[in-house]
Amino acid sequence: MKKPQTWVTFALLLAVLGVQGCSDLGSEPTLSDDEDDVREESYRYFFEHNYSGAVGNQAGLFFLEVNDHPHGSEPDHDPSDMFMARFAGHRPRVKKLSECTRSAYGVLDNLTGESGIIISTGLVRRLDANRIEVWGGYYESGVSASLNRLVLHRVFGNHWVVVTDELKGIA
Q1: Which of 2, 109, 148, 151 counts the highest number of beta carbons within 10 A?
Q2: Per-residue pLDDT averaged across 97-125, rounded?
Q3: Residues 100, 144: Cα–Cα separation, whole Å
Q4: Distance of CA 66 to the CA centre of its chain
């Protein structure tokens, strides 16, 4: 009679150890672990790679916009203050979306009236442990804007690099 009881105990022990041991094997980092780093790299990429009339360091001012709600179900919003600190001292200057006014004629700084470019990132979606997709683009005016699909790849531990830039729309 003790053999079946020993067998059941042994089977339960294996089952518990097997479940516990396997639970970590397939775990991937959560999106929130990487989302700020991916957004930062996407913004920096768009600073240098856009089709505006003021590409790269010729632009005097960038405004950052986050649109992370599916199908525009919520209004676009500013990045957090903590996120914006990543761009302290950056040239050209970087400000929040709420610090500008957007019209069909352009983007103007609410304080100085200086023209600038809005750089936007949308939904961030993990493709696998080392690849993430981000939709984004720029807005300079009603006749100078883009929609791009970026794919970023993790390199050197936790650094992200844009490996694919698909232009989906341009004005």
Answers
A1: 148
A2: 94
A3: 17
A4: 9
